[in-house]
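Quick review question:
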């Protein structure tokens, strides 16, 4: 004999229970109800796996990424899964891990879209064959791709009383600098000498007070 049930989705999750009763031999002896398997067992699992995803980059600011940086998804599955595949910015990534712990890494080549990074993690399956839904939303973290190099607009003048285009010993030569976007760590030299830097963000100054050993002629910086 065989007894077959096709699951329709309303069964109880867990170890399957059964009952075999009402069997009678030719003489009319009724066998006792049997609820215990001689061998084998089946665990009913209808729960679809889910993902918790943290996004960050290896940039000094983990919420930003430039060309050459890595964007990493750190993924925790609700149960052990296989076949997990993710894309970042529509590009194939390097997958790592197994079971409930995975990573997905993309090294930016410079052709990515400048935006808050999008991703997709699909094709994850648990031991019972339940396929998790495609996940495109980070549980925490976000990375903005910025591939645009900052540029500087620089005005040079001196505090010479006769003409801002001339400078002599004791005068200051000042660079007034406007960056195309907020920057840090800006350092300038004038005539090869260290200057006093001021400002931050998009507005900076670089000042040199002439001590008399500078090169005569048009100032270089």
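Suggested answer, residue by residue:
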């Amino acid at each position: 004999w065989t007894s077959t049930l096709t699951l329709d989705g309303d069964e109880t999750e867990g170890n399957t229970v059964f009952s075999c009763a009402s069997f009678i031999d030719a003489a009319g002896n009724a066998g006792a109800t049997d609820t215990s398997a001689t061998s084998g067992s089946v665990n009913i699992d209808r729960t679809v796996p889910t993902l918790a995803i943290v996004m960050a980059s290896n940039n000094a600011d983990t919420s930003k990424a430039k060309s050459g940086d890595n964007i990493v998804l750190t993924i925790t599955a609700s149960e052990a899964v296989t076949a997990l595949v993710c894309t970042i910015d529509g590009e194939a990534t390097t997958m790592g891990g197994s079971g409930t712990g995975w990573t997905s890494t993309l090294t930016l080549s410079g052709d990515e879209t400048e935006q808050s990074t999008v991703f997709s993690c699909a094709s994850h399956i648990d031991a019972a064959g339940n396929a998790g839904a495609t996940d495109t939303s980070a549980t925490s973290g976000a990375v903005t791709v910025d591939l645009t190099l900052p540029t500087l607009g620089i005005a040079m003048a001196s505090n010479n009383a006769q003409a801002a285009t001339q400078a002599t010993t004791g005068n200051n030569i000042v660079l007034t600098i406007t960056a195309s976007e907020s920057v840090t760590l800006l350092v300038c030299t004038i005539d090869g000498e260290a200057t006093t830097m001021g400002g931050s963000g998009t507005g900076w100054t670089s000042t040199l007070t002439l001590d008399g050993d500078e090169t005569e002629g048009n100032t270089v910086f």
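Why it works: The radius of gyration is 35 Å. The chain has no helices and 16 strands.
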